[in-house]
Amino acid sequence: MAIIHIASECFSIAKVGGLADVVGALPKYQNQNNQEAMVIMPFYNVPFTQNNQFTTVFDGEVPLYGKNYTFEILSLLDDIGFPIYFVAIPELLFTEYVYSQDDTLRFLAFQIAVLKWMITWENQPDIIHVHDHHTGLIPFMMTQSYQFESLKMIPTVFTIHNAQYQGWFSHDKVGLLPKFDFSKVGLLDWNGVINPMAAAIKCAWAVTTVSPSYMKELQIIANGLENLLAHEKNKCVGILNGIDVEVWNPETDAFLKKNYKKTNLVTGKKANKNWLCEQYNLDKDKPLIVFIGRFVHDKGCDLFGMLFSEFLLELNISVLILGSGDVAIQNELEGLNTVFSGKYKYVSGYNEALSHIMYAGADFLLMPSRVEPCGLNQMYALRYGTIPIVNKVGGLKDTVVDFKEHNGFGIVMNECTILEMKKAIVNASDIYANPILFKTTKNQIMKIDHSWLASAKEYQQLYKKLKM
Ligand code: ADP
Ligand code: GLC
After folding, report:
1. What pLDDT, on a 0 to 100 scale, did the predictor assign at position 342?
2. Ligand 1 center to residue 348 CA distance, Å?
C-alpha cells in the first residue's frame, strides 16, 4: 500500500516538537512492514536543506490574492529510510523557522502545491495521511475543490497531534481556497471562523489521535471541538505513538558521553550524570530531576518557578531544565539560576544533543503536563532507564504505571499542581534512597517496548478498512 504523509515538520529535517519525531519515524517503520510510505513537507532554509542535494520533479504556480507564487517539488537524492519530497516556494516557505505569523498563507500555499502535483501522478497513493491543522484543509480541497476532483476517491486520514492549535482564520480569506461549491462552505466553519482542524475532522475519512486516552479526553474537552469530535466518534480512533528505537538507543546514541545497555546501565548512566553535573554545577550525589520541553501552559512548566522558589531548599535534589517558549517563564527560571546555584540549572533554547544526554544522565524526568496528547519524552526516558514523573493525562496515562499499581515503574500525579509535584518529588527521592528498588526499576523500564512496530500495524489495519 502506498501512503503519503503530509506534514509541516519531519525529523531530522525540521523539528519543533514531537510531530517531527513521529513523521520522521512512522514511515520508516511502515516501510519495514512492506508498505510504501513517503513524506512531503515544506522546503525550509535549515541546515538539512543547505547540506543535501535535491532534484526537481515538478513545478507549477499557486495563485493567492491575485499573485502567482511559483513552486517546485524537490526530491531528496539520499536515502533516509523513506522517500521524501519538498515543496519549495521561496517567497513563503524558505525560512529559518517552521512557524510564524503568516502561517495561513504559507501552509495554504503548501497544501495547494502538494495537491497540484498530486493530480498529475499516474499512480496515485492509496492513502493520504495528513497531520495537524497545517495540512487540515487537504481533505476538504480533495473532496470539494473542482480542480482536485480526481483525488476525491483517495481515502484520507487526519491525525490530531494537538487539538489546542487549530489554524483558525476569518471568512474574509475564504477566497484563498481554490474554487468550490460555496453551498459547502459550512464544512470549513466552526463557531463562525474557518477552522482547518474542524474541516479535517469533518472531511477526512478517518481521524486519529496519538493515544487512546487523549481521544477520550477530546470528546469532553478539545478547545471548542469536543461536540464535533463526539459527533464524529465513529470515524475516530486513538493510536499510541511509538518511538524510533534506532535514533533513541542508549547503546549507540552518538550524543551520549558514554553508551550503555541494561547490563552496564549503572556505570553508563553515571558517566552521563557526572558530565551534566560538572557542566552545570550540580550535586551528582543527589537525585537528578530533569525537564525537557516547550514552555507552554499545557506542559505545566509555568509552575516550576513557584515550586522551586518555595520548596527547592527542603527537597534533596538536583534540577536541570532545558527549554524555551513563553518569555515570562524563561525569565523566571533564568532568575533562579543565581538564587539556587549548585542545586538548580535552567538552560535556555533548543539543544538536541543536550536533550539526549539528559535522558541518559537523569534519574527522573518530570513531565507534569496539563494536556499531553501522547508525549514522547517519557518513552525516551524509559528507554534510557530514567524514571518518569508524570501527570495522569492523555498519552502519559497510557504509558506510565504508578509504583503503587501492579508492576508499576513510574510516579503518576493526580493533577498538575505545585503540591502534587512536590509530593511526587519526595516520592522520587525515597525511591532513589532505596538502591535495590531504584536499580530494578531502571532495569524493568529499559525493557519496555515502545517501538513503532505495533502502532504501525494499527495504522495499517485502519488504512485497509478504508480501502475496503
Ligand atoms: P511536544 O510535541 O508537545 O513538544 P513531545 O513529548 O511529543 O512533546 O515531543 C517533544 C520532542 O521535542 C522530544 O523529542 C523532545 O526531546 C524535544 N524537545 C523539546 N524541547 C526541546 C529542547 N529545548 N531541546 C531539545 N529537544 C527538545
Ligand atoms: C504533539 C503533542 C505531543 C505528541 C506529539 C507527537 O506535539 O503535544 O503530546 O507526543 O504531538 O504526536
Report:
1. 97
2. 13
Distance CA 425, CA 433 (A): 12
Give the pLDDT confidence of 189-232 residue by residue, as tens digits. Answer: 999 999 999 999 999 999 999 999 999 999 999 999 999 999 99
The neighbouring-strand residues paired with 71 are: 60
pLDDT on residue 66: 87
| Whole-angstrom distance, CA of residue 443 vs CA of residue 265 | 8
Backbone φ and ψ for 187, nearest 5 degrees, come out as -65, -25
Q: What is the largest CA-CA distance in the chain?
A: 69
List, as one string, the DSSP characters of 437-461.
HHHHHHHHHHT---BTHHHHHHHHH
Distance of CA 223 to the CA centre of its chain: 18
Residue 351 Cβ inside 6 Å of ligand 1? The answer reads yes
Phi, psi of 236 (to 5 degrees): -105, 140
Q: Is residue 188 classed as helix, strand or coil in its secondary structure?
A: helix
Ligand nearest to the CA of 15: 1
> Grid coordinates standing for 178?
481554490
* Cβ proximity of 98 and 161 under 8 Å: no
Give residue 467's identity as a one-letter amino acid code: K
Which of 374, 390, 393, 400 to probe ligand 2 with, by most ligand atoms within 8 A of CB? 374
Distance between CA 136 and CA 140 in Å, rounded? 8
Ligand 1 centre distance from Cα of residue 374 (Å)? 12
- Atom number, ligand 1, closest to the C-alpha of residue 375: 6
Domains, the chain: 2-242+452-467 (3.40.50.2000), 262-445 (3.40.50.2000)
Instruction: Classify each residue of 200-221 as buried b or exposed e, where b means 16 or more C-beta atoms within 10 Å of its C-beta.
Output: bbbbbbbbbbbbbbbbebbbee
Residue numbers of the chain with a pLDDT score lower than 70:
none
- The alpha carbon of 321 and the centre of ligand 1 are apart by a number of angstroms equal to 12
